[in-house]
Predict the structure.
Amino acid sequence: MVCQTNSDSTQRNFQLFSLNPEGDTLWSRIYAKDFDDIISGMIALSDSTLLMYGIEYTSDVLSVARIVKVGKDGNLIWEKSYGNEFGRSSLRDVHELPDSSLILASVICHYGTSCVFNRYAALTKVDKHGNKLWTKTYNESESEVKALALPLD
């Protein structure tokens, strides 16, 4: 199970729990950063690891997409952030592709614009080590944008 917590500090952080079949906690790990982090989800990857994803605030008003790859023991393998080129980037969905790369779907807005009226959907593709291959933005919207991705064969 994954959630967000502020049990280690005044900031919200990603927290991963390992539970037994009865729902009792075997262990938990907190993956802290300097500002608030908002967890959006977690997926199991084909290499038997876990990928947590969400939003990492880099200041009180700026944010980037954050992904954290861990082993099933909760030990950190790597973590990456994406979207520094935007004012705000809110990671909403992640899928693993057949070649073990990842596609990340975010909602972004640019520096100096109103995030209420100038939102875009964005896709970022990263390799299996989290290295960014490309980012593309789509479809400016003046309303709430939901960014989801579904790989097709």
